[in-house]
Every structure is written in structure tokens, then in C-alpha cells.
Amino acid sequence: MNPIKVAIEEVNRMIAKLNEEKLRLQNACNHPGLISVQKSDTGNYDPTHDCWWVEFTCPNCGKFWREDQ
């Protein structure tokens, strides 16, 4: 088998393992100092397309997510 392909597959396995560990840590975090920013998209021609959401960022673990309002 091609040695570069083997190396890339090993790197991809390591990345997947690290992503799983990052997710585990982010899920265990209690998100101290959580930053929330309210956002919106309004003034559309069709007001039924107006929307509002909140973006959250944890400065501790780096987790970012949105919640519709």
C-alpha cells in the first residue's frame, strides 16, 4: 500500500480521536463566562422570513452554538 496513503489514514484516525475527546471535554464544561450575542435578520420583503437567534461562545472550552428565538 502507498506509504503516504497509510500515513494520511493514521492522521485521520488521530484527528477523529482528538475530535471525540474535544467533544467530551466541551460536554463536561459548565461554560463559565459564557458569551451570548443576540442576532437577527429582519426587514425582509416577506416578514415571515424575519428571524432571531442567540449565538453562544464559551471562552473556556471554545464551544460555539446557536439557538433560535
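The record above closes out task 2.4. Task 2.5 opens with a second protein, given below.
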Amino acid sequence: MSKPIELTKDFKEFNFLSYYKINRSKQYIYSCLACHYVQTGKTYDEVAAMLHYSRNSIIKWISKYQEEGINALLVTKAGRGRVSMLPKGMSIEFNEAIILLQENRQGGRIIGKDVVKFVEEQYGVKYSVSGIYKVLSRMVLSWVSGRSIDTKANPEAQETFKKLQ
């Protein structure tokens, strides 16, 4: 059997149920409910089973409140997810470089493989084609282009052909 949870006087008196009804975010609801259940005498394991969170999460929430108060309990840290492999602050430069790459292309349009090669040469970072398309989408660089110009096309011959018609 677990040893009883030691709670501070402030923790025992705080009304978690009314507080989470004011702040209706999922994070607030579960952490406040966990605190409420611990307040009512439930063990960490019982609360974890009821809320479908790990026992360690419940323990962290309780200790966070007891150490720093309600504001510390409800703070969600920024920076979740995978960190981009491209250097930070390069988005404007990267956007301009990709647009310039398309404009300098002699016929045709750039595709994912071209961008992967460019990023590897310029920044020394390896991406897959699907990964580079996600980066382009995040940087709002996905576009639909019209029919591309063949690299073997002869513009003068085409103009002559148009005039003959």
C-alpha cells in the first residue's frame, strides 16, 4: 500500500473544480482534476487510472502546485516537437533562395529533389523529398505553376512558327 500523500495547507484549501471550469483548456482540466482527486484522498495510482495519465505526470502536477502555485501548474512550455534541422532565423533567406532558384532555372521548374540538393549544398543538411516538402509548406512555399518550358525549347523557332500560322 502507498504511503499517504503529504499536502500543504494551501493545496488542501484550493478549489480546483471551480478553477478548471473557468479555464477550459484540456491541459487545465486534467491537471486540476488530478489535484482535486488527490485532495479528496485518492492515491497517485488511482488518479492515474481514472484520468489515463501516467503516475509520474500526476506526481509532477501535484509537486509543481505545492512548490510554485496554480500558475506554475498551468503553464505549458513552448518548444514541443522536433527542432528544425535548418539554422534558426534563416527562413527569410531560405524563402528568397528557393524563389531565386526557381527564377534562375532555365526551363522547367524546380522539384523536391532540386530543393533537397540545394539545401544539402548550401546548409549541409540532409532531408528526404517528403521532408523538404513539409519544410516548404511550413514556410508557405508550396505553389502550383503553369506548364513548364522544356529545357530544349527554342524560343525563336516557336515565335517563327506562331507567325507562320
